[in-house]
Amino acid sequence: RVVGEKILCQRSLQMRDQQRAWQESPEGRNMLEFRSSLPAYREKEAILSAISRNQVLIISGETGCGKTTQLPQFILESEIESVHGAVCNIICTQPRRIAAISVSERVASERGEILGENVGYKVRLEGMRGRDTHLLFCTTGILLRRLIDDRKLKGVTHIIVDEIHERGINEDFLLVVLKDLLPCRPELKLILMSATLDAELFSSYFNDAATMKIPGFTYPVRTHFLEDILEMSGYRLTPDNQIDDYGQERIWKMNKQALRKRKSQISSTIEDALRAADFNDYSMQTRDSLSCWNPDCIGFNLIHYILCNICEHERPGAILVFMTGWDDINALKEKLLTHSVLSDPSRVLLQICHGSMDSLDQRLIFEEPEDGVRKIVLATNIAETSITINDVVFVLDCGKVKGSSYDALNNTPCLLPTWISKVSVQQRRGRAGRVQPGECYHLYPRCVYDAFADHQLPEILRTPLQSLCLQIKSLKLGSISEFLSRALQSPEILAVQNAIEYLKIIGALDENENLTILGRYLTLLPMEPKLGKMLIFGVIFNCLDPILTIVAGLSVRDPFLTPMDKKDLAEEAKSQFSNDYSDHFAILRAYEGWKDAEIEFAGHDYCWKKFLSVQSMRAIDALRMEFFSLVKDIGLVDSNMTCCNTWSYDMHLIRAAICYGLYPGICSVVQKDKSFSLKTTEDGKVFLHSNSVNARQTIIPYPWLVFNEKIKVNSLFIRGSTAVPDSVVLLFGGSISKGDNDGHLKMSPGLLEFFMEPAVADMYQSIRKELENLIQS
Ligand code: ADP
Ligand code: MG
Q1: Any idea where the Helicase ATP-binding domain is (predicted)?
Q2: Which end of the chain offers a freer environment for a tag, N or C, measured as fewer CB atoms within 10 Å?
Q3: Predicted complex ipTM exceeds 0.90
């Protein structure tokens, strides 16, 4: 112990010397000067003292005031300077990996250190940390995983949960767990950080915990709504084409029919105006009905007009454009690069920023352009609070976010761009006023803004809860419903029941809601239960290699690209992968083709010709290695075994694995002459998503399709499907009955005939039973 303490002491002194030397160096002094200009820095002493006085502290402050980068640093610095030296172990969680990485890099560089020493990060698949890491930035998911083995978070001194205002499902879950942990760990400090003020809610949740607000400073931001932009472009609004009182009380109080009429009047006024101003490619978006959104209609003319206007007439400063997602960002980028005066790189530096890009691309968005070059960043709502781009003066806000919602009644997730909340509008607008007075262009009328909700619904109330329920079980937190009733806002009972029911159907929970052996393994695999099941199947039935590819393929962004102007070619390229009536096989074939091409250094070329994303291919490559070491780590595969691939080329078996994972996502194929329709037992008719390889078929020579997910966009669509035969469903899917409407799957006529022979039916039943036992054990 004495030797240990001595080493610790030496290390502390070393850290202190290092910290002081940096602070006194010219670069260090520059950095300190920047840091001390941040509003959070001015509150340093008050913050530290509040932390020492309270076990739980809730800190809010405007985005960019220095919460994320400064606060953890204050704690670290003061610990290093303290008499006992740095014995702290600070964990700061971020909802998104991109934020965890970029913030840790920033903090390390502010401290003049190499990342991975005192300051590190850990996200899924990536991490940089060492034995001496005292400040770790990680995703919330990583901390939740740690809790499985380390319920008390041994050795951790401070937990900082960042961006809690976003109310992500992981954060809400973590808060319930931490609330239970605090009394058992009186010396553990919990700090919650949030951009916008909802401090009261969190404070009362933690028994009136202390709150603190960092006074912020932003420059005034001038706002322009759609009607202002129209006027700017020379379109005059007259008294009878005013776009007004759309969201006002009076209108909401009208009866439904009158309301609809008024809304459509306003929509058409907006459309007329946009048409007259030649912005009519944008008209879809201004409509109220969310289902009217058409991703092809990204309002290019309007956005282009504003961008050109800024570039020609306005003072220097970067432009930040908020879009809904990867698809429309890409579409806009492509259009700007091909059809625009803005494609000139000596005038414009065009960059994109979204959650799934890799860390190298991320760094580019912080780069300062050369003099006379205008930086334009196309971003998702990730730039709303988690990432601050320094030099932004102009903001374009499309008013939408791609949000998931969940319809518990129909047990269906929906993924639609939805209008943002007023709080989000405020945030987006605020991004323009960080360095000087700014301008914000809202691409929708003021009356639409008036109708926005104040806050967005927390994620726990709008997503399926299967993974969450499994996590609750793996952390041994007791009854799922009881636990969730203690959340900040509890989800609907029906949503919880649906999730539990699903977990029972897939064999992860038994009748008494206890984890089965399969369930226990699923909790050890950081992926959706259905993907975990496929992996386990791959191990048991010795066909792991292709399953690794498919599971990895479903965990990354869709590798098949469809550029707007080459849609036909892209579809044609994709149809070459469609022989097997399976989107999963298409991924497998695409990956295998790429892998072969890579051997001859022609991977890039291959992707180009086949309209595949190189990044996705690389991500699949990395992920499948990761998943392989994971199945070894959890003891499913012997650690010295290099493969379990005896049956990897048996396509029937792979089909079975896909069915085993995706069940109860199944629908029957009703074949007519030259077309087919799809039916599920609970929803009736469903449709294939247009990007499925099966969508281009006229005949599916199998009676069933299993699918990844069902999504509601106007109608019910299924995404990612594979055709499977009766025998596979019989052995690895749910129960099939001869009758019609009892919630069971109905046998196809051929199978029915077969089953008339009782001995055959018995045989099937007993094989099935044996397989179930095999998998469970
Ligand atoms: P908050 O968490 O309060 O929103 P941050 O701590 O993320 O604020 O950022 C504080 C300031 O640090 C930002 O305003 C920005 O000027 C600067 N900053 C943050 N990250 C970077 C980075 N990667 N590169 C350059 N400056 C950065
Ligand atoms: Mg922050």
Answers
A1: 48-215
A2: N
A3: yes
